[in-house]
Design goal:
mainly alpha, 1 helix, 0% strand, 62% helix, elongated, 50 residues
């Protein structure tokens, strides 16, 4: 295999840091997901324990 076929991620300009955007996106998706899982577990325990 030649090294020219492998792809590397695009270079990010020095002034652009994507980490805050990535962290915000994880919170944007993760918070509702965590709340939904919490409610699912809470209601499932009520269902099976009475």
């Amino acid at each position: 295999m030649s090294d020219s076929s492998s792809q590397s991620p695009p270079d990010v300009p020095a002034g652009k840091d994507q980490r805050p955007l990535i962290a915000f996106t994880w919170v944007w998706v993760g918070a509702p997901l965590a709340y939904g899982l919490y409610e699912l577990i809470r209601k499932a325990t009520q269902l099976f324990t009475g």
